[in-house]
Amino acid sequence: MEQILSTFLTRIPGLKAIVVTDTVGIVIVQALIEGYDEHSISTQRLAAASLAVEQTEKLDIGMNKSSIAIYKDYKMVHFNDGQLMVHLIAASTTLSGYMLDLRGEIMAAVQPLRTSLPR
Question: I need a labelling partner for 31 at 20 to 30 A (CA). Which of 57, 60, 87, 91 fits?
């Protein structure tokens, strides 16, 4: 799975990491560009994204499918499918639209992971 996710990293300039978590932010698999420090991936931020999705769903406007968080030095795009969350971590200058365009392909690629998760 890591090898499949790595193919997406080369398609968008500035994309540093793709991290797949369960709905509470526990990392299942991740792919990083060469030289990117995996310790710079904050598990608290991943868990916070999961919590934000959960809270948004309480607004009764439907499932939050995607979200973007922009920080000083990087940005994160989050994809949610109810059982898995995929987090794309990129340089702050990376085009968010390109990252959002990967949603369908990435979610299809991680589909096999859904079967291994408890419901």
Answer: 57
